[in-house]
Amino acid sequence: MTSYQYLSLRFGTFSLGETVAKTPNYFWPVTYSEKSTVPIIRIRRLRPEIDSDIPIPRYMTSNCSGMDMCCSVEKEQLLEVGAIRVIPTGIAISLPVGFEAQVRPRSGLASKHGIGIINSPGTIDADYRGEIKIALINLGDKPYTVCRGDRIAQLVIQRVYQAQLELVDTLDETQRDDGGFGHTGN
Fold it and tell me: CB–CB of 156/65 below 8 Å?
């Protein structure tokens, strides 16, 4: 039988009748409370026996929108110019209903090395429980090596809504109307 580690992430101080100390870049396992307005994200290490050295996603400063995600490659992965490679993170998450996780590129990797995410932003739905993998693309002018533990993406949590669709014969008119690409002249 495989053992799994379960962690819940929160950031900051909450009125839950518990004391949560503030320490930069470290998060404590906590339980869900109806009083909290911050979503609780449950994280599971898929291979705890080999990936315990890989940091779980974390906010690097107190006002970050995205949590840095690290890769759990077993050995260095060379990303040739123009190549796409799917990189494992070794984690799966459980999002509350009504939320999604967006996987976005890290600006430093993009501006310094031309490394992006091919389907940016990638969407992790609330009902997905598989491993989060990052589809990196090298848009730079030289090969790039992805090493174990590298921060390769950001994870941004967003509220989402499932809309109700209504089929109609006409739509309300607007000033733009059906003006598409380049409709403003730029």
Answer: yes
Rounded Cα distance, 72 and 105, in Å: 17
Q: Is the pLDDT of residue 19 over 90?
A: no
> Is the CB of residue 40 less than 8 Å from the CB of residue 6?
no
The CATH number covering residue 70 comes to 2.70.40.10
DSSP type of residue 139:
-
Q: What is the distance in angstroms between the CA of the first residue and the CA of the last residue of the chain?
A: 60
Q: Is residue 182 a part of any domain in this protein?
A: no
CA dist 91 and 68 (Å) reads 13
Of 54, 21, 79, residue with least CA distance to 131: 54
Domain, as residue range, for 86: 5-159
**What pLDDT is recorded for position 185?**
66
Q: Which amino acid is at 119?
A: N
Q: Which of 70, 121, 117, 131 is nearest to 100 (CA)?
A: 121
Number of domains in the chain: 1
Residue 2 has pLDDT above 90, yes or no: no
Task: Report the predicted TM-score, pTM, of the whole model to 2 decimal places.
Answer: 0.75
